[in-house]
Design goal:
The chain is mainly α. It is built from 18 helices and 6 strands. The protein starts with about 35 loop residues before the first helix and ends in a 27-residue tail after the last helix.
Length: about 550
């Protein structure tokens, strides 16, 4: 039995959504406070208002946050309980372009094999509970805070949470299909039925409209908070989900103002690990005191190949790209170097040094690939990513990498897609061409592309945003098959994960955790489909890797 298959029932306690408002460490022990009680506390102690607001953001990257309410006191944190990173990482592992090795050290194998529809598994529980916990905090803030800016940010956070959850429980191309429950001040948690995707997105749009209006000209303390640009970016995502493409393009254009993508030079080395990178619009801050809660339960531990105290380097559980996608990247595209090639080489390694401090040996450049450092590093695997750098330096054991939630590059791609799908094809081509030629591949010629413009934009999203959690929602909203292998081409996907899934397979819809179904009597679970089997559907294609 693999490590990730530990049943939630083994923790010996049930989680109910009524505890959503009682997750801030700053709140008094002994239970929840009502809205009126909170307002009274905030009036008497203004610092508590700030603490409640800050807690809504700091929980996003806090290890051991989803399960710390239900496990026994003598149990250590699970390495896959890593806040919102767990959600985004799992979303990509359930897709076609990213996977890890099939070993007993890989706590995320459940996502790669799509056994995450088991109601008693920890992975789907974490992915369900984390957004709802934050929705609970946001709801408390919206109901009790007096500061309009804080309320606007809280509403934007709630919108982000619903957009993170809702598309996983239904097909967003069918807006009247039921998705997830909605939390309100008057929710009866024992009788809270699922609502339609359309109704959930109406709340999302109302929240984001409010945030856009009330965050104009407001400066934030750092990029872990939300400003007007991020609110526009979130609304651009929402408009894509709703098929409002002209609106999506307009919002993306407003969101990107004042930001520039990372240059070719800047992404010619491992990066994507620091909140202060200029192309980041919003991200999760993971300082040392947060990472130290469980250094194994962090983004660095699972996706950074250069971390010296991690499941990647230390356990050999490297995040790798599917060769089907890799082979479609032009040799002149700087992003080709974000992964090792067929010879286990990458130009991004040039100039890097990884030192074995115990032996006093340094490995430089390409030597890093095969270097073995006791208890610190295993050799890289074929097509391992070197996209994500190490914020504290190569071989660092702090695991303090921040996590990107929104980059300006995404806004360029949303704008291109929105224009293309609102019959502004020439403008869409210009936006896409300008972005790729200027910032990624100087030799890019959009007129030589043989795939459709829609598929070309999706290809660019799959390469640019690889590992950042977009694949599953993109595939579902675009109605695309999940294609991990071709029956007539070499594959580097482990046999257990090598299968294809049709775009409308009911198995793509998440199931509700058993604790939710036990405590919410009005939940009707998703049904249909079966867990994919190795080798299934070899004939499927996706328009990108064909």
């Amino acid at each position: 039995m693999k490590l990730y298959k530990i049943s939630l029932l083994a923790f010996g306690a049930l989680f109910t959504l009524s505890s959503c408002n009682d997750i801030d460490e700053q709140m008094p022990a002994g239970g929840e406070l009502t809205g009126n009680q909170l307002e009274s506390v905030y009036q008497e102690t203004p610092s508590r208002q700030e603490a409640s607001f800050n807690g809504m953001f700091t929980m996003m990257g806090q290890p051991d946050y989803a399960l710390n309410y239900i496990k026994r006191f003598d149990e250590s944190p699970r390495p896959d309980d890593a806040g919102f990173f767990t959600i985004h990482f799992s979303d990509d592992l359930e897709g076609a372009d990213m996977f890890g090795p099939n070993t007993n050290y890989n706590w995320f194998s459940a996502a790669s094999e799509l056994s995450t529809r088991n109601a008693n598994y920890a992975n789907p529980y974490i992915r369900y509970v984390i957004p709802f916990k934050q929705i609970g905090l946001a709801l408390s803030n919206i109901s009790t805070l007096a500061d309009t800016v804080m309320i606007a940010q809280s509403r934007a956070v709630r919108a982000y949470d619903y957009m993170t959850l809702a598309p996983h429980f239904c097909f967003s191309t069918q807006p009247d299909s039921i998705s997830i429950p909605i939390l309100t001040d008057t929710t009866d948690y024992a009788h809270n039925p699922r609502q339609s995707f359309r109704k959930i997105m109406a709340i999302v749009m109302e929240d984001l409209d409010f945030a856009v209006e009330h965050l104009q000209g407001v400066a934030r303390t750092d990029k872990s908070r939300i400003d007007a640009s991020v609110a526009y970016g979130l609304r651009a995502r929402a408009n894509l989900l709703l098929g409002k493409y002209a609106e999506a393009a307009a919002d993306a254009d407003k969101a990107m103002q004042g930001y520039t993508p990372a240059s070719i030079q800047e992404v010619s080395k491992p990066a994507f690990c620091d909140l202060n990178e200029h192309n980041w619009m919003w991200g999760v801050s993971i300082p040392k005191n947060i990472a130290e809660i469980s250094t194994a339960s962090t983004p660095a531990s699972w996706i950074c190949s250069f971390s010296g105290d991690a499941y990647t380097a230390g356990g050999g559980v490297y995040a790798m790209i599917n060769v089907l996608l890799y082979n479609k990247i032009s040799a002149t595209d700087v992003r080709k170097g974000w992964w090792l090639n067929e010879n286990n080489e990458s130009p991004l390694l040039n100039g890097l040094v990884w030192t074995d401090t115990e032996k006093g040996i340094s490995y430089t450049g390409q030597e890093i690939v095969d270097a073995t450092i006791k208890n610190v590093k295993e050799p890289f695997l074929g097509y391992s990513n070197v996209k994500f750098g190490c914020k504290d330096g190569i071989g660092s054991t702090t695991n303090i990498n921040d996590w990107p939630l929104m980059r300006v590059e995404e806004m360029y791609l949303i704008k291109a897609e929105g224009l293309a799908k609102s019959n502004q094809v020439a403008q869409a081509k210009q936006v896409l061409s300008d972005f790729v030629k200027t910032y990624r591949d100087p030799a890019y010629d959009i007129n030589s592309i043989t795939r459709s413009l829609e598929d070309e934009i999706w290809f660019q999203r799959r390469v640019e945003l690889w590992g950042e959690g977009f694949f599953t929602i993109d595939a579902k909203r675009l109605g695309k098959n999940i294609v991990r292998f071709h029956d007539n081409k070499p594959s580097n996907v482990p046999d257990a994960f090598k299968f294809n899934i049709k775009y409308n397979d009911p198995w793509l819809n998440m199931r509700f955790p058993s604790t939710e179904m036990d405590n919410n009597l009005d939940i009707i679970d998703n049904v249909g489909g079966t867990q994919p089997e190795a080798g299934q559907n070899p004939e499927l294609r996706d328009g990108v890797t064909d």
